[in-house]
Each structure stands twice: as structure tokens, then as C-alpha cells.
Design brief:
The protein has 550 residues and is an alpha/beta fold. Among the domains are: 59 residues; 129 residues, 3-Layer(aba) Sandwich (Pyruvate Kinase, Chain: A, domain 1), CATH 3.40.1380; 146 residues, no CATH class. The protein is 41% helix and 16% strand. It is built from 17 helices and 15 strands. A ten-stranded mixed sheet has the order 12-11-10-9-8-7-6-13-14-15. Strands 3-2-1-4-5 form a five-stranded mixed sheet, sandwiched between helices. Strand 8, helix 8 and strand 9 form a beta-alpha-beta unit. The chain is globular, with a radius of gyration of 26 Å. The N and C termini lie far apart (84 Å).
């Protein structure tokens, strides 16, 4: 009997514990919901302030605020690190601290000292461990911090900047995405416009090192998409691309249409040395057709470059998903809602559709196993006459894959808007309905078809200077450098060749500078980066025209 009584006692004890745990879960959920509500209420204001300061930093008013001054010769940099007071929050703090440590090491390599402000007990502890001078701190922040307490903590670093003792001030924090994911952000509010150093270089007539290089390691592709821009008459010369052999189920492997492995490594070495931030493997052809794509993806990570990939997703060697999980973003081009349509527009077997979706799931699972993964996974849907009716079906299917977003965009066609006249309104409505029905905090629907179709069908630019090509460099599978993907493989966009020289030698050469200086965007047939160029060109003006109330 004693045994039975003991068992009943233990059961009752477990049940009581279960009730307590449930109550604690409800309390925690309530607190989390309130915290999220406060975050959502404040985020529009903070983001607008950052944008506003960015615009101010590029203006030329009679009065210039001390925080808008540049101090390139200052002996220090300032950092503000925002963390939690307590632990047990996964990678919330560690992801931020990783970026802080990289910035500290970068500053010390340049002979600069670091002055810091700590918001949160964990930030204070971390900065103390790495021997960074902490000017002030604000700990025990609580659920509803007061602005005056934050201002008091920030004041010492503001005073140093105003005196010209700090070159830059960076804020390290997390951007809330969802309860399982926060993106570490680095803001520089005193030089608020991103990449102002590049803007200033261009303003001075210099040629900045590009932020990103698009590397086309293969002109070969295992698909033959009807809407492929690189095979479209009037877009490129389309002379360097193979044709899909439906009988053999592949394109005949022509190594001359691939950049050799050692040459690719040389390009990656040069990019890392020059200070390029990101490497995007894209097409042309399909990057994963290259026999050494796995090794090149890993080599990119090892060189400290941000890894990005655009792929059809049907070729996925073992170990590639795990490498991609260490990258920054990947977009899989699917462009269909079902296997039949997929096979028709891509001229591949229907089985390729499920193969692509399964490989996407592999990348999603690989990311889940990397606690501090920054990878953003997206799916692309290019709207054409043959697939626009599937927009809603496709978005619904993609939303269940575990990806972060889907991008709906218009096919880039020489026919401009005439191509879309018959189905534009209906396709736009489907895209909008898909966005309304399936978009969540965890899954975004970027409706470029409905919102920005004009950007994709713009004709000749009205300006001569192409600023975008200075920030994004395009290397084709023929080892030639082009202004952008718009002008790939045509004479107008060709800026030089890497066949007999390294990328570094090319980039620093006078012939390259002369080519760039002579290029006229107004001679381009069209420009899908028109809005980017217009915005950057506006920032480059010494005295931009101010229009009241706009």
C-alpha cells in the first residue's frame, strides 16, 4: 500500500508542477507580447529618425551640427553596445558581441583606441572581459527604460565626438524579427547614410572598391528557361550560352564556359585583400553546375567575405546546405506553382520541381542547426505570360517551406510594358492577395511586380554617370568585367578582361579607371537599377535642389 501511496503522491506532485509551469508560461507569454507591442510601437519612429538623419548628413545647410562633422584623424572610435541584463537567451547577446569584437579588432589594427558605452549588464561584462574602456553604463534596464537614463549613459560619448576625439560612433544592437530570430545591426547615426565613404570617394572623382562582386563562375545551366534574360534577344549578345539538350538531359559540358577553379580562388583572394564585403554567385548559367562550387562557397566564407547565392536549387552536393547556412542570403528561382508549369517554362523533367523544393528544405534545416546563422532564404517568382495565374498558388506553397521571403517580380523584356498589358491587372491583384493572405512576421512577400514594375521596364536613363557600377561589379563566365547584369556579355558594358591579369591588378589599373570614366549610362538600352542610380546621384550633388513640402 505504501508503494501505491508514494506513486499517487508523486503523480500529484508532477501535476502541481505542471500547473505552476503552465502559469509561468502564461506569464512569460504575456510579458513577451507586451514587449513585442512596445517594440512595434517604437520601431517606425526609430527607423524614420535614422532615415531622416541620413538625408541630413548629405545636405549642405548654412549651419552644420557638430554631430555631422567628420573626424578622420581622431585617435578613437566610439561604440554603444545594447544587450540584456540577464542570460539564458540563446544567441541574442553573442551575435551582437561577435560583431563588436570584429569592430574592436579592426579599430586596433588601424591604431585606434575604442571608447564604449554599455547598455545592459551583459554588455558591461563583455566589454570588461575584452579590456575595452567603458565610459559609462546603464544596467538593470527593466521592461520600460526611461529616456533620461539612456541619455545620461550616452552623454560621455557624445561629448567626445563633439570635441573631435572620435572618428565614428557605432551602435550595436539586435533587430527583432521573431521570438526565435533577431538580426544583429550596426548603426552609425553620426554618419547615418550607409556607405558614405563610398559616396564621398565618388564625389571626389575617385573609384571606390565595390561593396559587392557578382561572380558568374559558369555560363552553363541545367535549365533552359523561356524567360532567361541571358538568352533573350535584345538583352545580351547571348553568344556565350549553351543550349539545353532534352535528350541527354544536360548541356554539353564545355569547360571554356566556366571560370577555372584556381582563377576563381585568385579573384576571391583579391576581393578579400581589396576590401570587398560580399561575393554573390549568380547567373549567367547555374553556379552549382560548376564542379568546384562547393569548394568555392567554403573558400568565400574562409576569406571573410559575405556569401550570397542565386540558384535554381536542383543541384545540391552533400555539405552545400551547411556551407550556405554560414552565408548571408540565398534566393532560389522557382517561378512556378506546380511541377507541370515548372517543367514547361524551364524545359526540364517534372521531377526537378520537387527536387528544388526538397533542396530548399535542406538549406532551411541546415540553418536551424547553426545557432548564430544570419542566412536569409528567399524564393524568386518571375512573372511571365505562362505562369501569372499561379502566383497565389506558388506563394502559398513557398510559405510552407520555412523560407523567409518570396520575391515576385516582372520578367525583364525588350517589349517593355506591352508584354504585360493583357494580364497585368489580374496578376497584380493575385500578387496583392497573396501578400495579404500569407505574409507574416516570419514570411515576407515582396511584391515587386505590383509595386515596382516601372523600375524593371525603364528605358534609356536620363543621366550619364552610373553610380551603381561603382558599388557592384559584375564578372562574367568569360572572365570579362561588365558594368552590371544589364550589360553583361555585350560590348557596351564590357569594362575589361581578367584572362591575362588578376582582378586586383585590373581594378587598380589606369585603363580600368579610364574605361569607367568614359562610360555613359545614357547610352544603355535600359536600366533596372534606375532608382538606385537616381538616389545615389542625388547624394553625390554638391548642392542638391531642395523642394519644400515634398
Amino acid at each position: 500500500m505504501a508503494v501505491g501511496k508514494e506513486i499517487r503522491t508523486k503523480i500529484k506532485s508532477v501535476e502541481n508542477t505542471k500547473k505552476i509551469t503552465k502559469a509561468m508560461e502564461m506569464v512569460a507569454a504575456s510579458k513577451m507580447r507586451k514587449a513585442q507591442d512596445r517594440m512595434r510601437a517604437s520601431r517606425p519612429y526609430s527607423e524614420k529618425i535614422v532615415d531622416l538623419i541620413g538625408h541630413f548628413s548629405q545636405s549642405n545647410p548654412e549651419y552644420r551640427h557638430p554631430f555631422m562633422n567628420d573626424f578622420p584623424d581622431a585617435p578613437n572610435i566610439g561604440i554603444v553596445v545594447v544587450s540584456t541584463d540577464k542570460g539564458l537567451c540563446g544567441g541574442l547577446n553573442t551575435n551582437v558581441f561577435r560583431h563588436v569584437l570584429a569592430k574592436v579588432q579592426e579599430a586596433e589594427s588601424k591604431g585606434k583606441k575604442v571608447k564604449a558605452v554599455a547598455i545592459g549588464n551583459k554588455a558591461l561584462s563583455f566589454l570588461s572581459r575584452i579590456d575595452v574602456e567603458v565610459l559609462s553604463s546603464f544596467v538593470q534596464v527593466g521592461d520600460s527604460p526611461l529616456s533620461e537614463n539612456v541619455n545620461a549613459a550616452i552623454k560621455p560619448i557624445l561629448e567626445l565626438y563633439e570635441k573631435g576625439q572620435l572618428e565614428q560612433v557605432f551602435i550595436f544592437s539586435n533587430k527583432f524579427v521573431n521570438t526565435m530570430k533577431q538580426d544583429p545591426n550596426v548603426y552609425s547615426p553620426f554618419k547615418a547614410a550607409h556607405h558614405t565613404d563610398k559616396i564621398q570617394q565618388m564625389r571626389s572623382g575617385e573609384h571606390p572598391v565595390p561593396l559587392q562582386v557578382q561572380l558568374i563562375i559558369s555560363d552553363l545551366c541545367n535549365h533552359n528557361c523561356s524567360f532567361c534574360a541571358y538568352r533573350m534577344e535584345g538583352y545580351t549578345s547571348n553568344k556565350n550560352f549553351g543550349q539545353w539538350d532534352a535528350v541527354k538531359g544536360m548541356i554539353n559540358n564545355n569547360p571554356n564556359r566556366m571560370i577555372p577553379f584556381e582563377k576563381c580562388k585568385e579573384i576571391l583572394d583579391d576581393c578579400a585583400e581589396l576590401g570587398v564585403k560580399a561575393m554573390q554567385f549568380t547567373g549567367g548559367g547555374e553556379p552549382t553546375v560548376h564542379p568546384h562550387h562547393k569548394e568555392l562557397f567554403q573558400y568565400t566564407i574562409d576569406k571573410g567575405l559575405d556569401l550570397a547565392l542565386v540558384s535554381n536549387g536542383t543541384v545540391m552536393r552533400e555539405g552545400v546546405p551547411e556551407i550556405l547556412a554560414q552565408g548571408k542570403w540565398v534566393r532560389f528561382s522557382i517561378d512556378a506553382g506546380n511541377a507541370q508549369s515548372y517543367a514547361k517554362i524551364r524545359e526540364v523533367p517534372e521531377s526537378f520541381f520537387d527536387k528544388a523544393l526538397n533542396n530548399i528544405k535542406k538549406v532551411v534545416k541546415a540553418r536551424e542547426k547553426v545557432p548564430d546563422s544570419d542566412l536569409v532564404i528567399g524564393v524568386g517568382f518571375v512573372v511571365v505570360e505562362d505562369n501569372w495565374k499561379e502566383i497565389y498558388e506558388a506563394v502559398e506553397k513557398y510559405s510552407k517551406l520555412g523560407v523567409d521571403n518570396v520575391r515576385i517580380s516582372a520578367v525583364f523584356t525588350p517589349e517593355d510594358f506591352k508584354y504585360f498589358e493583357k494580364f497585368y491587372d489580374d496578376a497584380k491583384a493575385l500578387a496583392q492577395k497573396a501578400k495579404e493572405d500569407f505574409e507574416t512576421e516570419d514570411f515576407k512577400v515582396f511584391n515587386l511586380f505590383g509595386d515596382r514594375i516601372g523600375d524593371l521596364i525603364v528605358k534609356k536613363p536620363e543621366y550619364d554617370f552610373c553610380s551603381y557600377m561603382h558599388l557592384n561589379t559584375y564578372i562574367g563566365g568569360d572572365q570579362k568585367v561588365y558594368t552590371c547584369c544589364n550589360n553583361a556579355y555585350n560590348d557596351h558594358g564590357e569594362m575589361g578582361s581578367l584572362m591575362n591579369q588578376s582582378f586586383k591588378d585590373y581594378w587598380l589599373s589606369e585603363s580600368k579607371k579610364e574605361k569607367y570614366d568614359c562610360f555613359r549610362a545614357s547610352n544603355c538600352a535600359r536600366c533596372m537599377f534606375n532608382n538606385k542610380n537616381r538616389f545615389i546621384n542625388y547624394m553625390l550633388e554638391d548642392n542638391p535642389v531642395h523642394v519644400n513640402y515634398i
